[in-house]
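seq as requested:
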Amino acid sequence: MVEVTSWYLATLVIGTVGILPATALFPHLQSRGVLFARPVGLSLLSVGLWWIGWSGVLPYGSGTLYLLLGMSWIVTAIVLFRRPEHIRAIAIRWRLLVLGELMFIAIFSLLAAARAQAPNAQHTEKPMDLLMLTTINRSDVFPPLDPWLSGATVSYYHLGHLAVDIVGQLSRTGPEIGFNLGIAMIGGFAGIAIFGLASDVLALSHIRRRSSRVVAGFTGLFALLWVAPLASHRDILKILWDAESSLRETWWWWWDATRVLPGPISEFPAFSLLLGDLHAHVLALPIALIAIAVSVSTFQGRTPLTIDSWLRRPIQLVLVSTVFAALFMTNSWDVVTFGLLWCGAAVLALHRIHQSWFSACLHSMSYLSLPIFMTLIMVTPFIITLDSVSRSVSLVSVEASKPGNWLLIWIVPLLPLILAGISLRIRSERSSALIAGSAAASAVIAWLSLHLLFGDSQALVERSSGWIVLASLAGIIGVGVGAIVRAERQDDRAVAAWLALAVGATVMMLATELVNIETATPGRFNTVFKFWYHLWLIVALAGAVGLAIAYDRIHWPTFIVCWRKPIPAGVGIVGVIVYFGAFVYAPAMAINRAHENQPVGFDALMYLNDSQPGLAGAIQFARQKLDPQRHVLLQAVGEAYSSGGYLSAASGIPTVINWPGHQQQWRGVHVAVEERRQAVYRFYTLGAMDETEVIALKYGVTHVYVGSDERLQFGRDVADRFADWPIVWEGDGSLIFAVPNRQSIDTSS
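struct tokens:
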């Protein structure tokens, strides 16, 4: 409880840094962005501290953090003294602030309670995420060292992990606690952010019922953080049907809900937050919502969309650029989705002032050029520290979505959109719908033609029923664009906004069905895993706003009479059952995770005290006695998703090589995986030999660990091979040897 309270108070401190920048960033949104204060403040601090650490001006740590906080408070005080209208803008929204605070406390507490039931940093990619937190916590400069590749720095986006460590520094909790409370914090940030943003989009048009804002906010919150896909119904019913299984005790039955497509993973936020991987795509959720808010503000059209307008608003230029820089450095893939969304918002806003589509596109690129340029300046030091990994765009030829699988993933989050469209009787402007539909169809035809040109006609056959998905998406794009144009002509911007969000998601969905970004991971794995996660967020927001508009505008007596007819009533009842049935998944998953027999608490390493006390002791020793800058602690090589390299991940002390598959994903050809693997093999096989000391010199090895993994791989007598070397630590069957003449500080005590 102490950890939760201190972590919550630390986020309050972060909020004091972000409240003024948030209101300055969104002066025309109804909420003024006050519910974005925490993620905005944390983004600014993270980017600032990363730059300071990279430049070497000051070392990263609590001292530099407090200095930056103090400077932020001084600037805030000066601005509020000179511009008291900011105080009034915040003060008149005190009810929203109180409601947001209560919601954050509720979400944060619930997720923290869930994480406390299954806190272990084991399985999936949890060891990797723990490694990121640990190495950042122990680093003075950025980028931090890579504990799984001695002599190298981390070559993976890690600003989100830095953000978590910042809160950990303020709350005086270590990475093992931040690993679990960080994920709960991100869920809380995202929940209150989408609550405020849904209300802001709704307020773009006249609101008839004040309660409509609450409907929009809570619908968005639940759709983002609680709703699960239709596949969850299948998995739950399967367990309930089997008399020998139970939702409480059947091992990880909830896993299959994200493995619907053959190959790719279709993860969604409720799953992510309860699984507990502190991964980049989850850490980016609150910043992505701020990026969408930037798009909504642009679509609103209250400021001229010209370069000159940026020059007259330099503070907003810096803030917007910092938001997108933080997004890029947290999870680079997000910039593609939310950058395109911003561009689309600018095009629609410019088209509204009687510009042609072509002219609107040109002027939008001109308008966005300055923040893009400034964002690139901010992220360039980050980019140059990364090893380049080969990426290319290819045509989708395998793992295409079939209607059944597609509906298992998307029909539930789409239900609010469908209900809103039916209730509001959305109509489409015919000529615009025809043009947009033709453009979407042309993309499909181009995909088909390229396959025929390259002689890959088999891919067209293998698509089979997947052609229905392509045709449906193209049709939705056409009808949706026509409906947006019609809403714009009626100056109904809230309707136009939620339709634009829905159409934008559909366009990106179609793109993922036609082209694939090739990485070290084969097939559509990363394309679907990354981009569909973004789309879940956009669809949740669009559905919340659409449903709230329907609630706000429909004439309830007439609406009820219409739905009394047998067919509409039956469809409505099925829809309600399916949608609210999706709320069962998250609590059932949480209960199941609570029965994994993990020790209750927030310490991600606590389980080692009983399961591997030798490793736990070695981690403690390495943390206290070894320095990541001067020591390399050799361990056996473990493959991805295993417990290999855990000593380095939890202590931050580098080893020669671990999780080699991930190193190849991060660095491509820039890492000699096999050479390092063979070096580790020879080291443990030979023991205390002259050749071993040569290997130690080459890779900087100062200490050697012998534990259960080392004995399993190299034999029970592996420790005897280093009998001539001094033992600097021993406990519970594990040992750490010092390489003669290699250790640079005394570790014998």
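The first helix runs from residue 2 to 25.
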